[in-house]
Amino acid sequence: MPERPRETAGAQSPSPAPGLGPLRVCALYADLMNIYADRGNLMVLERRCAWRGIGFELSASGLGERLDGDAHDLYYIGGGQDRDQRLCAHDLIETKRAGLHAAAARDAVVLAICGGYQLLGHSYTLDEQEIAGVALLDVRTVREQGPRLIGNVAIAVQLPDAPGAAPARAGVHAENGFESAAQEGGERVLAGFENHGGRTYLGAGQQPLGRVLKGHGNDGRSGQEGARTGNTIGTYLHGPLLPKNVWFADWLIARALRIDPAELAPLDDEIETQTHVSACRAAGL
Ligand code: GLN
Predict the structure, then answer these.
(1) If you placed Cys at 126, which of 68, 70, 141, 143 could pair as Cys (CB 3.0 to 4.6 Å)?
(2) Edge-to-edge, what's the strand order for the sheet holding 123-126?
(3) In sequence order, what are the beta bridge partners of 139?
């Protein structure tokens, strides 16, 4: 297992992973769509690449900037308040829809959190106004009467080639009964925090990201959370999501680099595992 430097200053860089990367990430509206410090997700991707000697290139695409659907391996958009979503929604369609569709069509990863997730759907309806989305996911979101859906949340997800079978990791997770039960069924647990007024409804053929173990999920009723089509993923989980679920960060890195997650060098994830277990506990698992 490569030794992982905890401090950047003065730490020796690991030797570059031959043939892997760089991971080219594009953050959309990094300033406007960054509620609950969602940009922490990008830091996790960067660190986990760096610790493995995989290069990492971060670009940004803000208001008015065209999006190149060929230039990046992973496209990221965080959550945002209704006001900021309105600002971004029109721009997303005008300057980034074609790029995002091209990226998804060539199986690049597109990860969207909460408000960003809502904008990947067909529409977000609030105050009798319909904000159009880019329709990468077959979902519609409606701001209905009723309380905001707030709280810690845990979901079970089934993903192709998801990491987790390594005995060391399974051993650590064994203390969390839900996690081990889920793993036996080929599922993994994602834990996070949700806070949304919109309720999201999936089209008939749209696959959710996961099933709700604790919390509200897409609409508080369906038992479904998020949506996934191939490598395009929307979820309500903040936290930020990836620091609380580093196994998922690795899955995303692997998908974006088009390798099996098992090909990624294992890291010393003791602290990250504790973080995950504590996020699961906070959700009531
Ligand atoms: N503004 C959206 C809603 O309230 C999304 C909020 C968020 O990103 N947390 O539903």
Answers:
(1) 143
(2) 129-132, 123-126, 139-143, 198-202
(3) 202
Tokens 């408000």, residue located: 115
Q: Which of 180, 186, 208 is nearest to 277 (CA)?
A: 180
pTM equals: 0.91
Residues with beta carbon inside 6 Å of ligand 1? 35, 79-82, 85, 114-115, 195-198
Ligand 1: centre distance to CA 283 (Å): 19
Rounded CA gap, 285 and 276, in Å?
Answer: 11
Task: List the structure tokens of 41.
Answer: 């997700």
What average pLDDT does range 59-81 have in this prediction? 96
User: Which amino acid is it at 27?
Assistant: A
Q: What is the pLDDT of residues 193-227, one digit of tens each?
A: 999 999 999 999 999 999 999 999 999 999 999 99
Which atom of ligand 1 is found nearest the CA of 114? 8
Residues 6+ apart with CB under 8 A from 63: 29, 32, 87, 88, 91
Structure token pair of residue 225: 């959370």
Q: How far is the CA of 69 from the centre of ligand 1 (A)?
A: 26
- pLDDT tens digits along 9-35: 444 567 777 778 899 999 999 999 998
